[in-house]
């Protein structure tokens, strides 16, 4: 991670009010695909990591029993809470949580994990650890939308900020999911540097 968790939290809190209006077409396309692939059932609990202002959490809430939205930026979460209140959604919980420590109760059931445009802030070994934490929730499906390389990025036109972001290759992420007992059932190419990866559990957690 090129900045500390606290530095990232402060950076995103500062831009929270204008965040939704600042995002690219690729971001919105990615978010739409994450929502589509998440496809929660009516009794599912969804864990949305790096939830930000709720782009994913608020949409999947309409089809789920409950959404646990986790982020490190209080400013971003406050925007999300306002949007949830405006929509009359009382089944979305915004609370502090990190990728490698989502802050869940030990007995909390999770059926689907989602994340969009957030994991790339971690280094590759940290991403693997985070994917391990996602798997340990017991979720049957993980849907990740993120900055990730299908091929070498154009150094003159990076889709990310090298000073704060640390994207992985798509292959690295796919390997991390398969190592945790998941089959990658879809890889959507939104851009040469943006992917949506869908992983379905094929190996049960040890008893």
Q: Overall mean pLDDT score?
A: 89
The CATH architecture term is 3-Layer(aba) Sandwich
Number of strands: 8
- The tally of helices reads 6
The oligomerization state is: single chain
Strand-residue proportion: 15-25%
Our count of domains comes out at: 1
Residues in helices, as a percent range: 25-40%
Structural class: alpha/beta
CATH topology: Rossmann fold
What shape does the CA trace take?
globular
Tell me the major beta sheet: 8 strands, mixed
Radius of gyration using CA atoms only: 16 Å
Which sequence of SSEs, written as H and E, runs from N to C?
A: HHEHEHEEHEEHEE
The CATH superfamily name is: Vaccinia Virus protein VP39
**CATH class categorisation:** Alpha Beta
What are the segments in which pLDDT stays under 50 over at least 5 consecutive residues? none
Question: How is this structure best described in words?
Answer:
This protein is of the alpha/beta class and 207 residues long. It has a single domain (5-201), classed as 3-Layer(aba) Sandwich (Rossmann fold), CATH 3.40.50. Helix content is 31%, strand content 24%. It contains six helices and eight strands, in the order H-H-E-H-E-H-E-E-H-E-E-H-E-E. The chain has helices at residues 5-14, 25-38, 57-60, 74-87, 124-136, 170-179, and strands spanning 45-49, 66-71, 92-96, 112-116, 141-149, 168-169, 182-191, 194-201. Strands 1, 2, 3, 4, 5, 6, 7 and 8 form an eight-stranded mixed beta sheet that branches. Helix 3 (57-60) links the parallel strand 1 (45-49) and strand 2 (66-71). The radius of gyration is 16 Å and the shape is globular. The termini are far apart. The model has no long low-confidence stretch (mean pLDDT 89).
């Amino acid at each position: 991670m090129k900045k500390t968790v606290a530095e990232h939290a402060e950076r995103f809190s500062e831009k929270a009010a204008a965040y939704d209006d600042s995002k690219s077409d690729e971001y919105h396309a990615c978010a739409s695909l994450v929502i589509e692939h998440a496809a929660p059932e009516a009794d599912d609990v969804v864990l949305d990591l790096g939830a930000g202002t709720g782009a994913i959490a608020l949409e999947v809430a309409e089809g789920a029993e409950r959404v646990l939205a986790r982020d490190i930026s209080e400013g971003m979460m406050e925007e999300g809470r306002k949007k949830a209140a405006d929509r009359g959604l009382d089944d979305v919980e915004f609370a502090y949580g990190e990728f490698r420590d989502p802050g869940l109760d030990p007995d909390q059931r999770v059926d689907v994990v989602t994340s969009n445009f957030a994991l790339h802030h971690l280094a590759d070994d940290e991403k693997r650890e985070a994917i391990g934490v996602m798997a340990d929730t017991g979720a049957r499906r993980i849907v990740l939308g993120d900055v990730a390389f299908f091929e070498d990025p154009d150094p003159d036109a990076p889709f990310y900020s090298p000073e704060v972001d640390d994207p992985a290759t798509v292959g690295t992420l796919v390997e991390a999911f398969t190592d945790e007992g998941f089959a990658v059932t879809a890889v959507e190419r939104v851009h040469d540097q943006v992917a949506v990866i869908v992983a379905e559990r094929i190996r049960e957690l040890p008893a």
